Structure prediction request, 340 residues.
Amino acid sequence: MPMPMPRILIVAPNWIGDTLLAQPLFARLHQRFQSLTLDVLAPAWTAPVLARMPEVSEVIETPFVHGPLQWRERWRLGRALRARSYDTAIVLPNSFKSALVPFFADIPLRAGYVGESRYGLLNVLHKLDARRLPLMSERYAQLADKPREPIHRPLPRPTLTVDQANLLITVGRLGLDRSRPVAVLCPGAEYGPAKRWPEEHFAALARSLGVQGYSVWLLGGPGDRAVGDAIAAQSGGAAVNCCGRTDIASAIDLMSAAEVVVTNDSGLMHVAAALGRPIVALYGSSSSEHTPPLSDTARLLKLDGLECSPCYKRQCPLGHFRCMRELTPRRVLAEINELG
Ligand code: SF4
Prediction:
């Protein structure tokens, strides 16, 4: 008798970076289960990233907004998903509400960390051992196995597919120059300004890269458009602002053309890692301890010997913002040139 095909529903994180850090879990599930159907429930802003993961069968966009419980909407979605007959759900966020849809969908096995006391909502409960699993990607990957089972290291690396036709179309639409090596700069970081390298530093770096023969593209979302405009203006024409002028899928495709990516600690840093691009990642108020880019070609830059760092604040509580201000464009340029 043929074995039934396993069907798993993942409830994805809400951030692009965390979504990429979950990809080793997806790969591990495919290693464990042959002919797996792996669907992912995700918000609209991370869905295009998931659609570029070869492990994902289907992305189901959630209609939820940040904040409210939206009990009725979750119940409706759960009821609608019953027809899909999933055997297992794996819930990656720790919130109570994120575990509601698999419960309402009557999925027999519902796995995740205890999080916000999700006893009953989940029935395969993992307790986080932060010392054994220091990395976010390891914590997610553990959910492929039984609680407390050792995870399989090394973890598979995230990998995104690239749409070459869309890359050509986007380059043409934005009038970008690909005749020279491309440097992509990512000046945004949704978490807050304390994670953002100053715009004048980005502009100075863009000028230097222009002199070295690079075509410099600024990538980011609609919220980064103003800072992108400021950098482009200060760069004396060296940088082209693409922030907010592409959707996420096109940003992925543009980034795939980069010889080097210079980025804050942001979702796009993890996108660059999944595309195998050489990265110079700039850390200010945050640390790479739990969520480093999963990449062999990333250089992580941080100002040494600063007692207040990392503070993990969204805004600099001391006002001087030395962690980023004193990370100079000259030092970043030296790292780029060492990357070869
Ligand atoms: S307190 Fe220190 S680490 Fe935090 S933002 Fe300010 S300078 Fe950076």
User: Anything to note?
Assistant: Residues 194, 284-285, 306, 308-311, 313, 316-318, 320-323 surround iron/sulfur cluster (CB under 6 Å).
